[in-house]
Design goal:
This protein is α+β, with helices and mostly antiparallel strands and 386 residues long. The chain contains 14 helices and eight strands. The strands form three sheets. A four-stranded mixed β-sheet has the order 6-5-7-8. Strands 1-2 form a two-stranded antiparallel ribbon. A two-stranded antiparallel ribbon has the order 3-4. α8 packs antiparallel against α11 and α12 crosses α13. The chain is globular and about 90 Å long. The protein starts with 21 loop residues before the first helix and ends with a helix.
Length: 386
Amino acid sequence: MTGTEDLDPYDQRDAAPLHLEHRVLKSLLGAWALAACSAEETAAVEDHLGTCGTCADEARRLREAVGLLQRPESLDLDPGLRTRVLEGCLDRRPPRIPVPDWATSYDAETARLDALLQDFGEAEWLAPVRLRWYRGEEATSRRTTVAGVIAHLLAVDGLVAVALGLDDPLPGDKPARTPAERTEAFWDASHVPPDRSVRGPWRDQTHALVRTVSFTGAGPGTLPVSYGDFELPLRDALLDRAFECWLHAEDIAEAVDYPYTPPAPRHLHGMIDLAARMLPGALAERRRAGLAAPAPTRHLVPAGRPGRSLRLEIEGSGGGQWLIPLDSPAALGSADHEVAHVALDDTEFCKLTAGHVPPEEAAAGQAGDRQAIRDVLYAAASLSRM
């Protein structure tokens, strides 16, 4: 057959060019600038631009306008690039002294925050930041600056430094304090508000912590770290500090109008798991303070036995499911004794435990015992602190 209907359209590239009137070619300039013309129309327009200066000037202006409309590509590095590069390197040559797996989230989050800070000018360091947390039933906050936030991290990370036998960043011979007391003491010890000079000591301390647990091995990470009114084993303390570093990095990024992404999924999962494991104790503490409903006497169970439970379902790449015992921190969560179910997004749950989201607005899905759900959501918010 010889009809053109049977030809491959790509075989018609050498067909005779279109011959269009000037007014038609001029009307096609906008479509040409957007690359929306057919191949024949594009050829006709471009042939015309070589002979018509007026249309050529108009075409240039339209192309420049189209360039302004296009969203520029970000010059920022992919936040996962560092992890992928390190994993690739370590696959080829394992480190002689590896960072313990339970310390990698702290190592990663401190490095990410330091990368955010490295190009800050004086104006960014003094940008206002509001620290937020829950106290009892009420949200509370404290105003500071970006530099003040880094000073806060330096002071509280010092709890881990002291436990490892490193220097305490607090001036003088200070006894162990709560995170809030240490922060206030650090701020008060300076005659002027913190500025960009705090970055060096903070980063040096993060390096020293990671280096020390790597060189010493730190066993299974069971060394107790005192937070003043409670203790965490070293492995959980570093997870806690990684979590705080991420959330405060988001506070800083928000203050300077800069995007910031959540941690890697496996690190995020570890942070959520720590919060879920702390919930039974937080719930018991609220009961002792009269802020949560007392456990029904008929449901009290001996330590190590299954009891009434709430299923906490965390959705997203860092999520999972946890059965939270409701009536005693020593009881076991049990699917057979499940009385309530709460579903939240992974980052939303983290923001709840950081005091950044009101408990009554946090859960995406709820079913079952309403009082148990309320008590667990408020217990999650009570995990937040300055």
